[in-house]
Amino acid sequence: MIFNPGLEIGKEISNAVLVSIFKCGNMGGMRRSHTTGTLVLISDYTKGLYHDKWIGGVLHYTGMGKNGNQDIHWAQNDTLAKWGSNDVDVHLFEVMEEGKYTYCGRIEMVGKPYTETQPGEDGKNRLVWMFPIRPIPMNDVKKPAMFVFKDMDDYKARGKNVDAEYNKTHIKKSKKSTGKSDNRRVKHKTFGEGTVIDIKDGFIIVNFEKAGRKQLNYKICMDKGLIEFL
């Protein structure tokens, strides 16, 4: 199924408008919507965590999971890995300035997913899944120069320095974090509204106002539309 969001390539919108158009959650870099049959990918260069980069016109997009080795069969990593066989229409946005989501269009997978080492939110190195994707058709949406490489040779020559600089940004942002509650608000079809305590190891832990603390399978909740982020 091909979903038409009614957006021109290069259009900047807010997160609220993105959520309204695609009927997806309002948090995270990979947002699945069963209502529109889409997966929204967000490459956010302001966060200082995931190391997405453009190499020879291909975006090497980092999968889902903030700490520990990522699982390609978990949550939306699995959805993206099955591109072309699951009838999910994938759309890409880039964030180069906080709060501004630039529409880059629909994407296609142009290579097999592979793993590389990146630091997690906790600063510890782990294996992440990288997905080689590119817009359909190619477009001239402005890319962040720091993360654009002419080809793989260019990346091999400059990439380590760029990643090191990006790591410094991540460490600075991590130090500002309280490390306590995730603080995002969600609504569950059965348990009502609550505050997210953590999302890890395939589970979302929520302190619900009426039902108390619950640990739920994140993939099942998202796939079946049991929870939505407020």
**N-to-C series of helices and strands:** EHEEEEHEEEEEHEEEEHE
Oligomer kind: single chain
- SS summary, helix count: 4
**Helix-and-strand structural type:** alpha+beta
Number of DSSP-assigned strands: 15
Give the termini distance in whole angstroms.
27 Å
Contiguous low-pLDDT stretches (5 residues minimum) are 174-180
Morphology call:
globular
- Work out the helicity level: 10-25%
- What share of residues are in beta strands? 35-45%
CATH architecture of the largest domain: Roll
As for the CATH topology of the largest domain, it is PUA domain-like
Please give the largest β-sheet: 10 strands, mixed
Quickly count the domains: 2
Radius of gyration (CA) equals 17 Å
CATH superfamily of the largest domain: SRA-YDG
Mean pLDDT: 85
CATH class of the largest domain: Mainly Beta
